[in-house]
Here is the input.
Amino acid sequence: MSLSKKLMVGLTAGGAALAPTMAHAAANLKSDDFVGISFWLISMAMMASTVFFLWETQGVTAKWKTSLVVSGLITFIAAVHYFYMRDVWVSTGETPTVYRYIDWLLTVPLQMIEFYLILRAIGAAPAGIFWRLFLGTLVMIIPGFLGEAGYIDVTVGFVIGMLGWAFILYELFAGEASKKAADQAPAAVQTAFNTMRWIVTIGWAIYPLGYVLGYFVYTTATGGATPEASQALNIVYNLADFVNKIAFGLMIWYAATSVSKED
Ligand SMILES: *C/C=C(C)/C=C/C=C(C)/C=C/C1=C(C)CCCC1(C)C
Here is the structure.
């Protein structure tokens, strides 16, 4: 069976498996539930991006295929989580914290693999770069979860998470990863690497903003959650995922297609 046929079979099977969850939310979504609508739009965008990234593997050289597959895995994992998160939100109005963080725990390390692969595709990647980026994501995400889920103080979780993010930025802008990209990469790869790290700076900043709105701004006098808090938190996180998973993948696609043409 050819690659494109295999992909189509896989996608059809995946679509069939997800169809029941889609039908459930469709029956409950209200026209004034804008957070629910954003969950809906983004779940569709994640699914469409997955098809796109996997499909585009056909047009690039072998070493870039892996990068595009990883982009497709990121949006695929997100699409599945969005179906569940959307249902939780639409049927209960509650913040789907656990699904959200399971998604991040899988997809953020995969994005760090993307940085590593893009450097490896140009032959410049000691494994230490990946392990440091991976460590940074764990320090960022796990305390964020513990804070949001109420296991630790919400401010402590936030501060430790910010340090993890700062560590990732240090590696990408001043550490070994940045030097490898600057020294050895062709122009299209440098452009992609640069844009990706700006996504990690500006695009990722949207997440702590959501956390601040949800836990520090829209709270009651005693620090409890208000309906505005969970609305702000979810709509901001949804927007952030749209930017950071889809735009990030498009950067990989840009580098992969440009460099493949030159090869
Ligand atoms: C696809 C999902 C992505 C790219 C998720 C990224 C998540 C973050 C950048 C989260 C960052 C946070 C901090 C920097 C401080 C603590 C709270 C977090 C976990 C929201």
Q: What stands out?
A: Residues 3-262 form a domain with the Rhopdopsin 7-helix transmembrane proteins fold (CATH 1.20.1070.10). The mean pLDDT is 88. The chain has one domain: 3-262. The CA atoms of residues 69 and 242 lie 18 Å apart.
